[in-house]
Amino acid sequence: MDEKELYKGYRGNTLNLLKQHNAPVWSEVELTTSTATFYGLILPRSEQADDLHIVLKMKTGYNIGIRYDKVKKIIIHGRKEAHYKIPEKEFPYSPKKPRVKLFGTGGTIASRLDYRTGAVIPAFSPGELYGSVPELADICNLETEKLYGVFSENMGPEQWIGTAKAIAEEIEKGVDGIVIGHGTDTMHHTAAILSFMIQNSPVPIVMVGSQRSSDRPSSDAALNLIHSVKTAAESNIAEVMVCMFGPTSDVYGLLHRGTRVRKMHSSYRSTFRTIGDIPIAMVNREVIRPLRNDYKKRRNDKTFKLFPFFDDRVAIVYYYPNMKPDMIDSLVEKGYKGIVIAGTGLGHVNKPLYPALGRAKDAGVAVYMTVQTLWGYAQMYVYDTGRDLMELGCIPLANMLPEVAYVKLGWALGMTTDIDEVKEIMLTPIAGEMTDREPSNGYLILQGGIPEVEEFISKVKK
Amino acid sequence: MEIDYFDFTFKPFEEMTPEDYEKIGFKSGLEVHQQLKTPTKLFCRCPAGHYSDHYNAEILRHMRPTLSELGEYDGTALMEFKTKKEIIYRINYDTVCTYEMDDTPPFMMSSEALDIAIEISMLYGANIVDEVHIARKQYLDGSIPTGFQRTAIVSVGGGIKYKDRTINLIQMSIEEDSCREVSDVGHRRVYITDRLGMPLIETVTYPEMRTPQEVADVNRILSRIVKSTGKVRTGIGAARQDVNVSVHGGTRIEIKGVPRIEKIPILTYNEAMRQWNLLKLRQELHNRGITPETFQARFECVTRILKKTRYQPIKDAIDKGWKVKCVVLKGFKGLLRWQTQTDTYFSREISDRVRVIACLTTLPNIVHSDSMSEQISSSEWTLLRKYMNANDNDTLVLVWGDDQDSETGAKEIIIRAHEATIGIPSETRQAHYDGTNGFERILPGPERMYPDTDLPPIRIDQERFDRIKNNLPKSFWDRILDLTTLGFSEKEAEKIATSKYYNLFNKILELQIPLNLVYKTLIELPNILRRKNMNFETLTEDNIYTIFTLYKENKIIREAINEIIKSSIANGQFVEELIPDLCSETELNNQITEALKEYSNIKIYNPEQKIQILMGLLMKKLRGRIEGKVVYQSLIKYLN
To answer: For residues B237 and B261, is the Cβ–Cβ distance under 8 A?
Structure first.
């Protein structure tokens, strides 16, 4: 075993000390300092932590840190290496149950502790999943495949294309539904791009994650997984969806359309919300309850289309007052082919930006307008500013969410360099990314403190 | 050496001697939980110490077991999962934020709380760790919405003096408090969350106490030491202890949540008795040839046989469509009536398990054939015996509930009966009011510990260590020594030493004020006023010091001290206008003249009391401004 593995995470002062006493990690030791004697197990140390402390797990299960320069003596009594392993059981096969494929890309839906960083890393196999969420076997025959092991912020065009191709392959093979385990931070970006890359899917494609990692007893991971697998196996909804908690309580999940969903809270369980519309359905352990019927239905054929393309020379510019034109110019100079602006109000930016937008147009850069209010439409004809901007070639994208517009533009530019063709693609709704109308219950952010809202909250487990 | 448990029979509590406890090998240790007095909670900025049963909303959660850091599942965790409880949290916007509800990661630990914990560790002479590692201790009962308690070791070792020896400490941790349980019926448990997240310390002693009385004594000493800092909460629920007990050949059993120290002796006595009697029961079972290997039991559904029973609980259950399961315990005849604790029998060990594990919370939840009462008729027992293929030496136990719960219940009965052949199962037990205890859950092991990945370790550097060390309050023992040297009794000394006014007390003594006066004002008066709903704390320590300074400078008289304190409380704060002027000699003489005039105008029935009446009239006007004895002397002089 190499030294790095032997003294995992220790460096500098502590590494010297441990080497000097020949005490690698997992040694059961009696460690004497200038003030006391401690009994315990030397644990690996997080690499980001300092080189001044040794981590000891005591008999009571607690860990403590001991300063290296206080250590006088280390006597080794044995060795006990931890094997963090979810009990693996063979996932039972039942010929009558639907076949579901679960792809792993990363995230905390199934995870284990990483001693190197002290953080959690994904762990995942049908056996492990069955070991920790045995309910899955009541729903389907599950197969899993790990595509990537990345945190969601590291998902990008390469992973999107890879995932889309993997899904296509499974549909070809006749799977009944697809589940994609994904980190939650950028789950809505991936949901949107998959909605464009895989069109006319005959089966449900369900994205799922967890807001509390599965190493915690109160994790939402197991329930989200059950909901998503149930949706993939049984639902009649053949679309790309995000399946996450509806309320913070363990009551039901929501199925959001992949192009209309957004993560709205940095840590809440009920963080995903359908914006400017209502979700497709609710799901609990027993039943999937549609909230609308205009979704695409499950089919038996395999006539879907795969468009695995992406040009990553695209950017989102989040407008703020006093933005300087060089923000646009620099993108154009660097060779970007598309810019999505998240403008104020109905889709506005300040006057000083106009010349820069003109230069972008002349350089053949596709510029599109979305709104940073998230809810509502870019309606640039209402005010002069909007009209001026449209003159400058800035095209409004109705109620397409900025992140959705970003992935769609990259995708469109991946398929064609013709700016007019790009425009046609951008303005033709493919998977609900732009809608003709916004129902009034598509914008419902309950305001806490108001008596009728409080009355509702006191009655319903939200 | 094989112990013959039939060799010793427990006597009533009052008759047990230290020798008896030595004979049974009584050993006990303490885990004392003490809330710290900080303005905020430990890992968020919610206010601490605000209790209210009012709630704005409810949240529903379930708990699932997860793996520990070493990759093992914890026994308790698995048990709690078997119970499949729905947990409801009642939340009040004012006391709970999204952190406690586990919808937001923790904020950094309150450094004020950590400082207090370090300070108390120093008072125990413990070794402070160099780096505090926050761990998650799993609790799947739902008492904490995350499913774990954030906890960290602050110090290791240390000890306290007791009699002629030292009681050693294992460790002290700092942790967040849990929810208060509102109800637990069937598969639904309700918690109120106001207490959740408040900082507390847990001090753990080695099991070095040898009699029930010693446990209570040591607990009192620990309590005094922490109170002497003036930085801990007091009052109901602010300090709670878990007591662990074992006897020769027994198991370390934890009695959780003992609310009052006075209850400890009877509780530990009963637990020692329970262990001794369970070991005696094991011996009896072995004598009957029933060992862990030869133990036989099984269960069947007997709903049909009991269809016409007159026993109401089972009749009601069958009417609801529930099932009745019958367990046969081979060769157990009479043993469910084996005494375990005071007025408590082995059948309760079984009933408790069924209640907790199978969620059959309505009592009675079992009935058995060893029972003398005729709940189930003898003809029904005969039918059941025949159906179960059981003979007269076997015990039958009935349990009822929906299909799943009654089956879990039946299995649990067999598990608990089998455990009787092995010894005493590792459990945590809850304290009952009558001094007995009941099953709470399987004792959690170190397997339930998991490092908290949300928070980095906290380094305790030399600067912090020195700052706390240099401001360390005088130890409880030194305080007692000082005070008794001054002439206070042990009892008085203890009250002063643990008072929040200890430092002020000493500061005032430096003014050379009579000891008795300071004691009466700072130790006794606050309690007297509290009974009258007057809050002594309306006055700051500076206010009180000012009053004593005025007294020292002869600007006010002794009697005025209480008067100023009372009028300050009535006024809401201390202001200088409340200090009365001293009465001059001229004014006194004028007042005496006035009083005599008044006296001549009133009708007097007993003129022999003239002096007393005149004194009454004068003091009514002059109280707090001049000493009574001066008035008296002047009055006598005047009359003569």
So the answer is: no
A184 part of the active site? yes
Rg (CA), chain B: 32
CA A53 to centroid of chain Cα atoms: 35
The distance of Cα B587 from the centroid of its chain, to the nearest Å, equals 58
> What angle do helix axes B264-287 and B346-357 make, rounded to 10 degrees?
100
Based on the number of CB atoms within 10 Å of its own CB, is B629 exposed (0-12), middle (13-18) or buried (19 or more)?
A: exposed
- Residue A204: asked if its preceding bond is cis (omega within 30°), the reply is no
Q: Please tell me which of the candidates A65, A219, A457 has its beta carbon nearest to residue B57.
A: A457
The pLDDT score that the predictor gives to residue B632 is 86
Signed CA dihedral, A447, A451, A456, A461: sign only: positive
Weakest-pLDDT range from A83-87, A150-154, B173-177? A83-87
Q: Which domains can be identified in chain A, with CATH numbers?
A: 3-79 (2.30.30.520), 99-306 (3.40.50.1170), 314-427 (3.40.50.40)
Give the Cα separation of B283 and A416 in Å (integer).
Answer: 86
* Rounded Cα–Cα distance for residues A104 and A182 (Å): 7
* Closest residue in chain A to residue B78, using alpha carbons only: A217
What Cα–Cα distance (Å) separates residue B157 from each residue in A254, B2, B119, B170, B388?
Answer: 52, 34, 14, 5, 56
Residue B355 to residue A116: CA distance in whole angstroms: 44
A146 close to B (CB below 8 A):
no
3-state secondary structure (DSSP) of residue B25: coil
Average pLDDT over residues B361-387: 91
Prediction ipTM score: 0.89
Q: How far apart are CA A265 and CA A262, in angstroms?
A: 9
Q: Rounded to a whole number, what is the distance in angstroms from the first to the last CA of chain B?
A: 92
Active site residue A185: yes
Q: Please identify which of the residues A50, A185, A329, A388 carries the catalytic annotation.
A: A185
Asked if A220 and A210 touch (Cβ cutoff 8 Å), the reply is yes
Nearest CB to B147 within list A63, A87, A218: A218
A248 is catalytic: no
Facing residue for A55 by CB, picked from B133, B139, B453: B133
Strand partners, B203: B32, B172
Active-site residue flag, A423: no
- Spatial distance between the Cα atoms of B353 and B397, rounded to a whole number of angstroms: 13
Contact status, residue B419 vs residue B75, Cβ threshold 8 Å: no
> Which positions in chain B touch A227 (Cβ < 8 Å)?
none
Q: Do B135 and A61 touch (CB under 8 A)?
A: yes
pTM of the complete model: 0.86
Tell me the β-bridge partners of B131.
A65, B459
Q: State how far the Cα of A32 lies from the Cα of B565, in Å rounded to an integer.
A: 55
